[in-house]
Amino acid sequence: MSVYRNYSIAGINLKISPFNEQGQLLRAVNVESDVVGAKKKRPGYITYLGTPDANRVNTLFDWQRNSGTQFWNYRASGSQLYYSTQGTGAWTVCGNGTIPNNDNVYHDVLADTLVITSPNGTSRHSTTGTSFTDTTSAPVGGVGVTEFQNRIWIPGTASALNYSTAGTPTDWTSDSSAFVIGGAGKLISSFKNNNRVVATKNSGLMFRYDGYNLTDQSTLVVLAQLVRAPPCEGGGCRFESGIPPTHIFLWKFSYP
Predict the structure, then answer these.
(1) Would you say the C-alpha torsion 136, 139, 142, 144 has a positive or negative sign?
(2) pLDDT for residue 36
(3) Cβ(160)–Cβ(153) below 8 Å
(4) Cα 86 → chain centroid
(5) So what's the pLDDT on residue 27?
(6) Domains in the chain and their CATH numbers?
(7) Cβ atoms of residues 25 and 65 within 8 Å
(8) Which residues contact 39 (CB under 8 A, 6 or more apart)?
(9) pLDDT, tens digit, 9 for 90 and up, residues 76-98
């Protein structure tokens, strides 16, 4: 017999509703219907690996080595960065894991090296998963870490988008540089999308960089909708556009 479960509540019930529908149990909270009319207790919330401190958790992330056999979970709370080996070990403070109080921690990976930064702290790296080293000459006060085109990119202060030496996330001198992103506001994040690194500002501006050109997203033109004109001849298809002549459209070959 198949069992289908459907929950209409947003979370675990913490009290008994006086508006129970007919047929519901008045004193059975957080249960689900099982086979043959049985009732089964719904699992509740539990604390993951305990609470090493009483501070709010600001960041949770994980890192898996290139071998695929070892990983660590990380927790940033208060002024400490903790790790848990294989997701089951107790929370342990990372070596050189002191961070500015209540800072978010951003991260990414290049060359089997974990790189982290925080808005009020320094950039650091780890090859062991349990201890971090301050990264010489890397930007401080970063608001993101993004791996793109075999480099680490960190948006920092003064709207500068910084990048590391190619293939070496710990080298920020020999083939490293930065460029300033114009427009109002300061940088608040970075991420990778469609083979481009994207940087955002608190003014709402968004820029993307493909390795050659920096493009202001607000200046892009809407793509035309092309209509297939059958039949397809000679192994290829003709495309025609029924667009009014008063409109100008661009076609980007990186999009379908």
Answers:
(1) negative
(2) 73
(3) no
(4) 21
(5) 64
(6) 1-45 (no CATH), 57-217 (2.130.10.10)
(7) no
(8) 25, 28, 31, 32, 33
(9) 999 999 999 999 999 999 999 99
DSSP string for 140-204: SS-S--EEETTEEEEE-GGGEEEEPBTTBTT--SSS-EEEE--SSS-EEEEEEETTEEEEEETTS
Provide the 3-class DSSP secondary structure of residue 36.
helix
225-239 core/surface letters (b: 16 or more CB in 10 A; e: else):
eeeeeeeeeeeeeee
The sign of the CA dihedral 243, 245, 247, 250 is: positive
Q: What is the pLDDT of residues 107-122, one digit of tens each?
A: 999 999 999 999 999 9
Residue with tokens 């501070």: 55
**Regions of the chain where pLDDT drops below 70:** 1-28, 220-256
- Residue 57 is inside which H or E element, if any? strand 57-64
State the sign of the Cα–Cα–Cα–Cα dihedral 206, 60, 160, 153. negative
Q: How far apart are CA 177 and CA 180, in angstroms?
A: 10
Alpha-carbon span 123 to 156, nearest angstrom: 10
- Confirm if 207 and 216 have CB atoms less than 8 A apart: yes
Strand partners, 31: 41
Distance CA 126, CA 116 (A): 9
**And the tokens for 123?**
């950039």
